[in-house]
Design brief:
The chain has two domains: about 130 residues, 3-Layer(aba) Sandwich (Rossmann fold), CATH 3.40.50.620; about 150 residues, 3-Layer(aba) Sandwich (Rossmann fold). It is built from eight helices and ten strands. Strands 3-2-1-4-5-10-9-6-7-8 form a ten-stranded mixed β-sheet, sandwiched between helices. Helix 2 links the parallel strand 2 and strand 3. Helix 3 runs parallel beside helix 4 and helix 7 runs parallel beside helix 8. The longest helix has 24 residues. The protein is globular, with a radius of gyration of 21 Å.
Length: about 300
C-alpha cells in the first residue's frame, strides 16, 4: 500500500504553509498528497433547502478545493486529493495520520474556520500519532529550505540547508535515524547528528578530567550509533556533533540555520494521554525551522 503524505488544512496561514511544505515533501518522496479537513458542524449536503445551516461547511469545502487547486497549479506533476471528514480535528487526523507516510501540520495555528487546528490540537497529535509528524510555521517557504544564492537572496535553485537530528545513543533510535538519513538523502543535504552530554550534579574529586572524559565517551557512543547508517547512506555527508548541555536547550539552537530538525518521541505504552517529553516540546516551540517528530520504542 502506498502511504500518502497527509496535511491538515484549516485555512490559517500556518496550515497553508504546511500544505506547501507537504507538497514539496510528497514530490521528493514520489508520493501522493492528501489534504484533509475535519468538520464538526452540520453534515447535510450543501444543496439543502436550508442553506443557512450549511454555509459554514460549504465555505470550508470551497476553501479546501481552492487550496488543492493552488497546490496542483504550483506542482502539476503532483497527485493531490482532498477529504472533508466529519469529526473533531484530533480524532480525524489521528485516524488519517495512522495510515500516512507522514502527517504535516501547521505549528501553533489559530484557525480561520472554526478552531480546526489550534496549537494545543497540534501538540496532542504529536503525542498521539505513531507515524512521523512534521510541524511547519507560517513563515516557512520553499526557498527558506535552501541556502541563499550567490547574491544572498532566497532561491530554490540553491542547495538545501542541513538536516539536523538529535540522538541519544542510550536508547533505540532506528526509526529516528532512518527518517533523518532519508530526509537528508532526498534533499542531497548534509546531515548533522547531535548528541548532548552533561556531568552529574554531584562532582567527583577528578572534576578537572571529568568534562573531557564525558565528552570523549559521548563522542564514541555517537560514532558507534551512526556508523551503520553511514554505511547504509554513503552518499549523505554526515557531521557528528557532541555538545554539552540539556538537549531541550541545545537542539533548537543547533537547528538555527537548518532546513529541518528531526527529534524523537518515545512511545510509552500503557500510559494515557498525549506525552511528548521536554525535548520534543522545546523543539516544536523554539526551533525556527520545520520540526519532524518521529515516534520510536
Amino acid at each position: 500500500m502506498v502511504r500518502p503524505v497527509v496535511v491538515g488544512l484549516d485555512g490559517s496561514g500556518r496550515s497553508l504553509a504546511a500544505a506547501d511544505w507537504a507538497a514539496g515533501e510528497a514530490l521528493r518522496r514520489g508520493l501522493p498528497l492528501e489534504v484533509v479537513q475535519a468538520w464538526e458542524g452540520v453534515t447535510s449536503p450543501c444543496d439543502t433547502k436550508q442553506p443557512e445551516l450549511n454555509w459554514p461547511r460549504c465555505l470550508a469545502r470551497r476553501m479546501l478545493a481552492d487550496a488543492a487547486d493552488r497546490l496542483r497549479e504550483g506542482h502539476p506533476e503532483l497527485a493531490v486529493r482532498t477529504r472533508q471528514i466529519a469529526g473533531s480535528a484530533t480524532d480525524v487526523l489521528t485516524a488519517v495520520g495512522a495510515e500516512a507516510e507522514l502527517l504535516v501540520l501547521g505549528s501553533r495555528a489559530v484557525s480561520a474556520v472554526g478552531g480546526f487546528l489550534a496549537g494545543s490540537v497540534a501538540q496532542v497529535l504529536v503525542g498521539r500519532v505513531a507515524r512521523p509528524v512534521v510541524l511547519v510555521q507560517a513563515h516557512a517557504t520553499a526557498a527558506g529550505e535552501h541556502l541563499p544564492d550567490a547574491e544572498g537572496r532566497p532561491s530554490v535553485q540553491a542547495p538545501y540547508r542541513d538536516v539536523v537530528v538529535g540522538v541519544d545513543p542510550r536508547h533505540p533510535c532506528e526509526e529516528l535515524l532512518s527518517f533523518a538519513f532519508e530526509s537528508a538523502a532526498l534533499r542531497a543535504a548534509p546531515l548533522r547528528v547531535v548528541h548532548t552530554w552533561r556531568l552529574p550534579y554531584v562532582r567527583t574529586p577528578t572534576v578537572a578530567r571529568a568534562p573531557r572524559a564525558a565528552a570523549a565517551a559521548a563522542a564514541a557512543a555517537l560514532a558507534g550509533t551512526v556508523k551503520p547508517w553511514r554505511e547504509k547512506f554513503p552518499g549523505v555527508e554526515v557531521h557528528e556533533r557532541v555538545l554539552e548541555g540539556r538537549p531541550s536547550q541545545v537542539l533548537p539552537e543547533a537547528a538555527r540555520d537548518a532546513g529541518l530538525l528531526v527529534v524523537g518521541r518515545r512511545i510509552r505504552s500503557g500510559r494515557p494521554g498525549a506525552r511528548t517529553g521536554a525535548v520534543t516540546h522545546a523543539a516544536t516551540h523554539r526551533a525556527p525551522c520545520p520540526v519532524a517528530v518521529v515516534a520510536h520504542d
